[in-house]
């Protein structure tokens, strides 16, 4: 069984360094070409206004990869999966705060979005404004909620999602790794359907697109590598003022897609 997948990160036209970090791993018993549906991935976007954005994202993804690897090596109950995702965020946060305390109180901050699949379900964790999307049948069926000032305005109906992309305060986070003692992640438990395309990306990618263009690109017959490369290169042409990173996975799912567009939008960690 093959899971089509790709990940890519570029510096962008004007940035001096890449402050994003990505990882995509499969069970040690499987490979990228022979896989029964299990995978773990993580994407972090270091905050450029802090001291060391590239270090913040790298440390966070290292912590995520360590726990994600252990998740792929054993059978886990839903509660164990959720607790493992929570531990990723706590460990990543602790790593950044510890580093800052040992280095003249340097300030490190990053977004972090992670995903774990056991083959039939997808568990998603998110802090910040990096996103996970699921597209199916040419439409967006799921998106994580941003932890940002402009997302609050959009939720209140003050501005639209498109207006949020150009708002002067669009980079203000309301939750991030490394900036508070307990950055509680939103966690989602989602059923997977045949035809799903799972996209994790930073704001350097999603700000360049509306859902329709994303969906059309992912509906094409291109491979994950070609689709993701096309999206990232186009985002760089449109703007290129930020790092641009993404992970794209098309899992093999035996169920039909009859309910793919009716996924929950509320985190299971929300009241």
Give the SSE layout.
Blueprint: E1 4-10, E2 20-26, E3 38-45, H1 53-71, H2 78-102, E4 112-118, E5 121-127, E6 131-136, E7 139-143, H3 149-155, H4 161-164, E8 186-191, E9 197-201, H5 203-206, H6 211-219, H7 224-238, E10 244-250
Antiparallel strand pairs: 1-10, 2-3, 3-4, 4-5, 5-8, 6-7, 6-9, 9-10
Helix pairs in contact: 1-2
Describe what you observe in this structure.
- The chain has helices at 53-71, 78-102, 149-155, 161-164, 203-206, 211-219, 224-238; strands at residues 4-10, 20-26, 38-45, 112-118, 121-127, 131-136, 139-143, 186-191, 197-201, 244-250.
- It has 271 residues and is α+β, with helices and mostly antiparallel strands.
- The protein has one domain: Phosphatase 2c, domain 1 (4-Layer Sandwich).
- It has a five-stranded antiparallel β-sheet. It has a five-stranded antiparallel β-sheet with strand order 2-3-4-5-8, with helices on one face.
- α1 runs antiparallel to α2.
- The chain is globular, with a radius of gyration of 17 Å.
- The chain starts with a strand and ends in a 21-residue tail after the last strand.
- The relative contact order is 0.20.
- The model has no long low-confidence stretch (mean pLDDT 90).
């Amino acid at each position: 069984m093959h899971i089509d997948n790709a990940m890519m990160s570029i510096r962008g036209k004007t940035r001096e360094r890449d402050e994003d970090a990505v990882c995509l791993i499969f069970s040690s018993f499987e490979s990228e070409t022979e896989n029964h549906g299990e995978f773990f991935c993580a994407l972090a976007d270091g905050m450029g206004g802090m001291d060391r954005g590239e270090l913040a994202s790298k440390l966070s993804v290292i912590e995520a990869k360590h726990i994600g690897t252990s998740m792929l090596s054993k059978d886990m109950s839903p509660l164990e999966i959720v607790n493992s995702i929570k531990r990723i965020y706590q460990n990543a946060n602790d790593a950044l705060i510890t580093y800052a305390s040992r280095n003249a109180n340097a300030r490190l901050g990053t977004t972090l979005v992670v995903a774990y699949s056991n083959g039939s379900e997808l568990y998603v964790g998110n802090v910040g404004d990096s996103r996970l999307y699921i597209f199916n049948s040419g439409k967006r069926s799921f998106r994580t909620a941003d932890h940002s000032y402009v997302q609050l305005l959009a939720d209140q109906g003050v501005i639209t999602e498109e207006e949020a992309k150009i708002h002067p305060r669009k980079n203000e986070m309301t939750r991030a790794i490394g900036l508070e003692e307990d950055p509680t992640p939103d966690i989602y438990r989602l059923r997977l359907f045949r035809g799903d395309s799972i996209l994790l990306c930073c704001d350097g990618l999603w700000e360049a697109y509306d859902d329709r263009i994303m969906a059309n690109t992912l509906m094409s017959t291109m491979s994950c590598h070609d689709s993701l490369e096309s999206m990232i290169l186009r985002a760089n042409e449109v703007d290129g003022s930020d790092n641009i990173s993404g992970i794209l996975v098309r899992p093999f799912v035996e169920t039909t897609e009859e309910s793919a567009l009716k996924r929950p939008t509320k985190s299971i960690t929300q009241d």
